[in-house]
Amino acid sequence: MSQYKPTEHKHQVLHEPAATYVPGSYYKLAFSGISKNYLKQVLRFCHLSVSEFIQAIPISLDTYKKNSEFKPHVTEKVLEIEEVYKKGLEAFGENFYPWMETVNPAMGNIKPKELLRNSFGIRILLDEIGRLEHGILA
Fold first, then answer.
1. Distance of CA 133 to CAs 26, 38, 81, 91, Å?
2. How does residue 133 score in pLDDT terms, banded at 50, 70 and 90?
3. How large is the angle between the packed helices 72-92 and 119-133, nearest 10 degrees?
4. Can you spell out the DSSP letters for 83-128?
5. What's the pLDDT score for residue 28?
6. Using an 8 Å Cβ cutoff, are 69 and 34 in contact?
7. Domain segments of the chain: what residues?
8. What are the φ/ψ torsions at residue 13 (nearest 5 degrees)?
């Protein structure tokens, strides 16, 4: 019986968002660092302000301002947020942006984008997008 040995990943920095992601690529990309340019592109794509984004990722505003590259734990969070928006936009097109901004009684009377602040909220969003995409309203 062989013991589990974690895969070693070489450190790299993501500079440009990939055009498409295949299953498992988020897992692999999460081991990379992320450039400020990549982060800014995700901000534009998600229609989020820097202050909204900072609330959702594990860095301070000062760290955001002074760094040009960020560590893998930031990459992981950015990729989670990017995944939510990609799936939401695939399912609902541009209507997804106002949905993220609208207080939702089914989600505890909060705006869905507030759920971006932690992994549990991200899972709730991805589950809800999947349900809505398949016509399950409750």
1. 22, 28, 18, 6
2. confident
3. 20
4. HHHHHHHHHHGGGHHHHHHS-BGGGTSB-GGGGGGSHHHHHHHHHH
5. 80
6. yes
7. 23-133
8. -120, 130
On the question of pLDDT at 126 being above 90, the answer is yes
Of the pLDDT bands very low, low, confident and very high (cuts 50, 70, 90), residue 70 is very high
Residue 40's identity, in one-letter code, is: K
Do the beta carbons of residue 47 and residue 88 sit within 8 Å?
no
Q: How far is CA 122 from CA 5, 19, 66, in A?
A: 29, 22, 27
Give the position of tokens 């995700």: 42
Burial class for 34, CB neighbours closer than 10 Å (0-12, 13-18, 19+): buried
Q: In a 3-state reduction of DSSP, which class is residue 14?
A: strand
| 100-127 mean pLDDT | 93
d(CA 122, CA 112): 9
pLDDT at 32: 85
Phi/psi for 8 (5° steps) reads -85, 135
Q: Which residue's structure tokens are 């409750």?
A: 138
